[in-house]
Structure of Glutaredoxin:
Amino acid sequence: MNKVIMYSTQVCPYCQMAERLLKSRGVAHVEKVLIDKDPSRRDEMMTRTGRRTVPQVFIGETHVGGYDDLSALDRAGGLMPLLEAA
C-alpha cells in the first residue's frame, strides 16, 4: 500500500475525518506532519501544494488535496486504486 502523508494540525476536525476515511479504506498508518507544532513545515506544505489549509493529503507522490478532495476521490472510485498502486 502506498505511503500516506497528511499535513495537519492537532485540533482540525477535517483532518480527523480524513484520517478516519483513510483508515476505513485499510490504511494502517497516516504519517502526520503537524504544522501547528512545527511552523516551518507550513511553508513546506504551501510550497508543495500551493494551499494554506489543512488537511493536505499525499498518497505516494500524488497530492490528493484536502478532505473534500479525498472524499470526492473516494466517491468516484479513485481512492483505492491510488492507495494500492505500487
